[in-house]
Amino acid sequence: MLDNADPVLRVLCVDDNHDTADSLVVLLELAGFEVMARYDGPSALDAAESFRPEVCVLDLNMPGMSGDEVGRRVRAGACGPETLLVALTGLPEEEARRRSSAAGFDLHLTKPVDPDRLANTLIDIVILRAPLHSHPSSVIPRPQPRRVD
After folding, report:
1. CB 77: neighbour CB atoms within 10 A?
2. pLDDT tens, position by position, for the chain (149 residues)?
3. What angle do CA 1, 90, 7 make, to 5 degrees?
4. C-beta separation of 14 from 67 below 8 A
């Protein structure tokens, strides 16, 4: 993490491939984010309750509990509907997009992810949520999650 700086965003990375999750943690910590890795759905849900991530980067295809289900439960739980859900998957494109859309994910990225693209996407989110300095009372509203009925 950047020296003497508060983390700009809390990110929970969930992937059953430990190397993938751990690599994302290192990358995002270098970008100044507070990051936690989990390797399965149940432990991710436990972590979300205490860590309260603003962003969850979720592998869709995990054994036991899919990333789709983790995302639904995170938003239905203590983190709330404003939590940004990012699908990160190696599934075939059409199936993955269908699943991430049906589960209400905000972003969809395909493995292997370009580390700079992921970090820059999250930085863009931080910028969009920051107050406008030219009008101190103005704040850009957080994007509202899409509802899938």
Report:
1. 13
2. 445 556 578 999 999 999 999 999 999 998 888 999 999 999 999 999 999 999 999 999 999 999 999 999 999 997 888 899 999 988 778 888 888 888 889 888 888 888 788 888 888 877 776 665 554 444 555 555 566 55
3. 15
4. yes
Secondary structure class of 132 (helix, strand, coil): coil
Neighbours of 79 (CB within 10 A): 23
Q: Please, is 19 exposed, middle or buried when counting C-beta atoms within 10 Å of its C-beta (0-12, 13-18, 19+)?
A: exposed
Q: Which domains does the chain have, with CATH numbers?
A: 10-129 (3.40.50.2300)
Tokens encoding 45: 């849900």
Q: How far is CA 110 from CA 12, 47, 106, 147, in A?
A: 17, 24, 14, 22
DSSP 78-119: TT-TTSEEEEEE-S-HHHHHHHHHHTT-SEEEESSP-HHHHH
Contacts for 59 with CB less than 8 Å, ≥ 6 apart: 14, 15, 16, 17, 20, 67, 88, 89
> Which residue's entry shows tokens 């970090």?
119
